[in-house]
Amino acid sequence: xxxxxxxxxxxxxxxxxxxxxxxxxxxxxxxxxxxxxxxxxxxxxxxxxxxxxxxxxxxxxxxxxxxxxxxxxxxxxxxxxxxxxxxxxxxxxxxxxxxxxxxxxxxxxxxxxxxxxxxxxxxxxxxxxxxxxxxxxxxxxxxxxxxxxxxxxxxxxxxxxxxxxxxxxxxxxxxxxxxxxxxxxxxxxxxxxxxxxxxxxxxxxxxxxxxxxxxxxxxxxxxxxxxxxxxxxxxxxxxxxxxxxxxxxxxxxxxxxxxxxxxxxxxxxxxxxxxxxxxxxxxxxxxxxxxxxxxxxxxxxxxxxxxxxxxxxxxxx
Length: 317
Ligand code: NAP
Description:
The protein has helices at 12-17, 34-40, 57-62, 81-86, 99-114, 117-125, 154-165, 180-186, 193-199, 219-222, 242-250, 270-273, 289-307, and strands spanning 3-6, 22-25, 46-49, 68-71, 90-92, 146-150, 169-173, 188-190, 202-205, 230-233, 256-259, 278-280. The protein is an alpha/beta fold. It has a seven-stranded parallel beta sheet with strand order 8-7-6-9-10-11-12, with helices on both faces. It has a five-stranded parallel beta sheet with strand order 2-1-3-4-5. Strand 11, helix 12 (270-273) and strand 12 form a beta-alpha-beta unit. Helix 5 packs across helix 7 (154-165). The longest helix is centred in the C-terminal third of the chain and has 19 residues, at 289-307. It is globular. Bound molecules: NADP nicotinamide-adenine-dinucleotide phosphate. Residues 74-75, 95, 98-99, 102, 151-156, 173-176, 206-209, 212-213, 234-236, 260-261, 283, 285-286 line the site of NADP nicotinamide-adenine-dinucleotide phosphate.
């Protein structure tokens, strides 16, 4: 019987579908480090992983029975795809089912930063609310403002639909522009990265983390943003040079940032945590009961397909 190892407990709906195999689940509230993971997954035909599990060449070579690595995420920057492919191991992810949840959270961060929601909450909790004042915690409105989407994929497009409801104009940047038809349907315009950064009031990052996109928002790129602009990152921390972002926030070169992801999770620099003009979340993009349940089912279907000798529905390689 094939052995399926799950590195961290996922919702029951997914685990139930995997019970037909010899199922081993790490039920402790503890992330496995590399050597623990290799020991834990000994003899596994299938490995269900989190985005924090590093599945590199060494891990892959130490698990010779492996047929599939099914990551419980859409991003797969933690997996050595080339090494997996060389060994004929299928890698799968969970696209689509978390798109709406992540787009919702992006809007939550846009509103939280532009309207200073967290600062306001703190002020009330700390007993500093003295009554309505004409200029208390003024933010900026979204109507007629420009949203710059970096990475107009599934999540980027879902953010566009929401932003349009707030009356925003949208520009975007991808490696390749979308078709004219799609641009018209979405009511968006293509811009170079530099132009997008110069003209946007809100910049929202939705590219996957790759060698090409690492530190795509470098110090020199961040300096192109307007002093009134807001940066939102719900993609991956390392797409933005975190130290450079701290510098522009400290110097007031941009208005605020809303971050769901960090360069070295779970470490969040103290310099970032002590700033008032940032809203910080613990990687909650897909954290709705609905999305997480559907991701668990998707992961299980990918594993099952490969172990039954079929094409996985969400195959990366
Ligand atoms: P997707 O549909 O693949 O969209 C990614 C977009 O980025 C594509 O339009 C792609 O277009 C563009 N892109 C890729 N590399 C680029 C580059 N170097 N420069 C400019 N554009 C580039 O992916 P998705 O489902 O929207 O997810 C996006 C990312 O969000 C994931 O990879 C994941 O890391 C992150 N995510 C985070 C959370 C969270 O919990 N915070 C939840 C879900 C997803 P081109 O290929 O045409 O350039």
